[in-house]
C-alpha cells in the first residue's frame, strides 16, 4: 500500500479486459460485438476501489453528449471522467497496442486508451470487472453495474 492512502489500493489482474474490433452499431444498439481481443493478458492495474460522484456525473454527461452530439460537452465530459479515473489508478504495467509499456496513468494517458479500456477501468474502480463478477458468485450479491457502454446516435 502506498503511504498516505486511507483506503488500500487493490491489484486487479487485467486478463479479462477486452477490446472489440469491428463492432457494428445500428441506432442505439450493438448488432455485432466484433472480434474480442484480450489486450492486457498478464498485466495488472492497482486502483483505489471507490468511485467518486464526479465520475458518475461525468459518465452521465458523456452518455448525454453521445446521444445529442455536442463536441464541447463530449470533450469536457471525457476529460472529467479521465481525471477521475487517473485519481484512482495508482500504478499499472499496461502496454499499448504495440506492446510498449504505457507511461504512468495520468488523465492524458487515459484519454488515449480505447473506449473499452476506459470502461474496463471504470468497472474495476467499482469492483465489477468480468473476473470479479465471476469470483463474487459465492459472496453476497453486488448492485448491478451502472456503467453501460454509451452508444452514439445513428446519423
Structure, described:
With 155 residues, the chain is of the alpha+beta class. The protein has one domain. Helices cover 34% and strands 17% of the residues. It is built from five helices and seven strands, in the order E-E-E-E-E-E-H-H-E-H-H-H. The protein has helices at 53-67, 71-86, 107-111, 115-125, 130-135; strands at residues 10-13, 18-21, 24-26, 29-32, 35-38, 44-47, 89-92. The strands form three sheets. It has a three-stranded antiparallel beta sheet, with helices on one face. A two-stranded antiparallel ribbon has the order 2-5. Helix 1 (53-67) packs antiparallel against helix 2. The chain is globular, with a radius of gyration of 16 Å. Mean pLDDT is 79; it is low at 139-148.
- Helix percent band: 25-40%
Strand content: 15-25%
Question: Alpha-carbon distance between the termini?
Answer: 48 Å
**Widest β-sheet, arrangement of strands:** 1-6-7
Order of helices and strands: EEEEEEHHEHHH
Shape: globular
Q: What Rg do the Cα atoms give?
A: 16 Å
Our count of helices gives 5
Q: How many β strands by DSSP? A: 7
User: Structural class of the secondary structure composition?
Assistant: alpha+beta
The number of domains:
1
Spans where pLDDT lies below 50 across 5 or more residues: 139-148
The overall pLDDT, averaged over residues, is 79
Largest sheet geometry:
3 strands, antiparallel
